[in-house]
Every structure is written in structure tokens, then in C-alpha cells.
Amino acid sequence: MSTVAFYDTKPYDRDYFQRADHADQLAWRFHEFRLNATTATSASGAQAVCVFVNDRVDRACLMTLAELGVRHIALRCAGFNNVDLVAARELDLAVTRVPAYSPHAVAEHTLALLLALNRKIHRAYNRVRELNFALNGLVGFDLHGKTVGVVGTGKIGRIAAGILRGFGMNVLAYDPFPSPDWARDAGVTYTDFSTLLAGSDVVTLHLPLTPQSHHLINAASIARMRPGAVLVNTSRGKLVDTAAVIEALKGGQLGGVALDVYEEEEGIFFEDHSGEVLQDDELSRLLTFPNVLITAHQAFLTREALSEIARVTVTNIQRRAVDETFLEGTAL
Known catalytic residues? Predict the structure, then answer.
């Protein structure tokens, strides 16, 4: 029976992974702390480690894991920018991921953020709880007839575009690898990035973090957006330059921002800091704006997504355990 060291464990992780098919054929060691070069020695005796978005699997960490006999890095997420893939290959460590668990979960959360931000649902909820039923300051705008720019048209971006079309929005799209047949059938118009920014009332991000997409939303790109446009990001935090967003909010260039991810979320998101002073000045500043709505990387958090994440991850670990040459769509 293979042993799996499982990091950054939350109660829902234990629940869904232990209930996954064939999970009882693996020996699980659940750790609440994150995996990094310092904590990697805790994987001693394990053949695989299971990691999430904020585990830091760099070269130093991988070297320790390889020395301990770990042969498999099983990501329970789609993104893999926190893993040094070059070092993993050099050390002959297999790396697998869950490329598509529930794109509907993330796309639907995108719409939830946009609707809540636009119609001030979060502010209205707090008012009513305090018996304040006034409507001043709660004016939003109709999505119908507005233009939304969808940056990235993979599975999530396409589903988000379809939902937005259902609201009667005009959809512009940008992707380095466009899908013209899908766009034609979906009533979506591909354009270049600058045209999308200039022509959109709402811009929503649905693309992976790469060296090319790092800080794609920065001072220069924000300046090309329509004054008062709304930005939504449910993809990767580092797609957005937080300092530039703060300046644009202060100056009114951005009319609102909805984020499920944050570029320096490691050590903050997924944890309870309610009894502490938040040490991140930029996040603290963002939280002061009335036209900013932030959730803590929860777009994936549906029953369907958690079940699929557990199923695919367990399958990856089992197949790798019995077949050292295992390679399929989930392998990197």
C-alpha cells in the first residue's frame, strides 16, 4: 500500500478524499501545514505527496523529497506554477494535476462576484442586518446590453462567456490560441487585448499564470480600459498588479474590482486571521474600498468540484504507484 503525505489539509479535503473511490487502498498522512523546503522532511516514508496551490515545491523542496524516496508530486489543482517542473524532471519525479475538475464552479463564482459587486449585495446585506433599509449608495447597472471582455477562452472562460451571453451581454474575447468555431457558435467576437480593454464595461480573467501573463493587468493596461470599468479575477492572483489596481481605484479609472485570488495570498487565504492584525498593507488597503469585493480563493469550492478533485487525484496516485511509466493528460 502506497503512503501519501497530504499537505495544507482542510476538513473538506479529508472528507472528500477519504470518501473517494479506492482511497482506502492508500495510506494517508494528513498535515495541516504546507509543504516547502523546510517541511519536506515530514514526507519521510511516503511514496507520493499531495499538494495544493500555496505549497512551495521548489528545487530545494524537490531535492529533499527525492532523497526521501518520494517519486510522485500529485497536485490537487489545475495550476502548477508553484512546482519547479525542470527540477522535477531532472530528479525523475512524476508530477500530475487535475486539469479540469468543475469549470462550471469557477465560472459560476465569477458571475456571483460580478452580480454581488455590481448590485452591492454585500453592502446591502450588512445594512439590513443592522436594520438599515436605506437604498442610498446601492445603485448598480444592468448587465444586459453591456460589453464584457473575457480574457482566456479555455474551459472556464468559455462557460463564463456563455453565462454572460445569457444575461444579454456582448462578449469580446482574447486568447493567444483562439477557437473561431466556438466563438462563431457562441456569438462571441475575438479581438486583440488592447481592443478588448478599450471596448469592455467588464473585464474578467480566465487564463493560467505564465511569464507572459504575469501582471497582465498593470498600470498601462488599466489605462487602456474604459473609465469606470469593472475587473473580475478568479484565475491567478499574479495576473494582476495590486499596486496599480489600488491607484486606479483611488483615481476612479476602475469602477469596481472583484477578486477570488490575490497575488500575495500565500499564508493569508485559507486561514483564519480574524484575531490578528493583517500584515499585508496592499490587501488591507483593498479591503477599505467600498467598490471592492474579495473572496478567499473559494471559486472551486463546490461538492461537484471537490468530488472530482479527489477522484482524479486518487486515480493519478494509484496509477503512478503501479506503473512507473504512467503518463496521460494529467501528467506534466
Answer: 236, 265, 297
